[in-house]
Amino acid sequence: MNLYVVKMFFIVQSGCGEINANLMKLLIMINACKIASASRVTAVPYFPYARQDRKDKVRELKRTLSVAGADHIITMDLHASQIHRFFDIPVDNLLQNRLLFDGFL
């Protein structure tokens, strides 16, 4: 019998506390999942730098998430919708107001 086990991880970053320390924890957790043979890692970062219009900060974060091993990113309410174009990996930008509104209907 040939069994194929898919190890999928979703890592949700906290928005509380020190931003850079939390980002480092997220990167370490992504890398640890990849070392543990994860087939897919989806990161849900707090993404504090998304509120800035400076592209260099977004590019740095994109690069570090990709290098750490993230295969997919889920964000909430990106400041500028074009930010997802900086990523080499799939990015889903969820609109919080739409999710909340649909939940009440």
UniProtKB/TrEMBL annotation:
This is Ribose-phosphate pyrophosphokinase N-terminal domain-containing protein. The keyword Aminoacyl-tRNA synthetase does not apply. GO terms for cellular component: cytoplasm; ribose phosphate diphosphokinase complex. Signal peptide: none annotated. Residues 8-60 form the Ribose-phosphate pyrophosphokinase N-terminal domain. SUPFAM superfamilies: PRTase-like. GO terms for biological process: 5-phosphoribose 1-diphosphate biosynthetic process; purine nucleotide biosynthetic process. It comes from Adineta ricciae. GO terms for molecular function: ATP binding; magnesium ion binding; ribose phosphate diphosphokinase activity. InterPro entries: Pribosyltran_N (IPR029099), PRTase-like (IPR029057), Rib-P_diPkinase (IPR005946). PANTHER family: RIBOSE-PHOSPHATE DIPHOSPHOKINASE, RIBOSE-PHOSPHATE DIPHOSPHOKINASE FAMILY MEMBER. Keywords: Nucleotide biosynthesis. Belongs to the ribose-phosphate pyrophosphokinase family. It comes from the Eukaryota. It holds the Pfam family Pribosyltran_N.
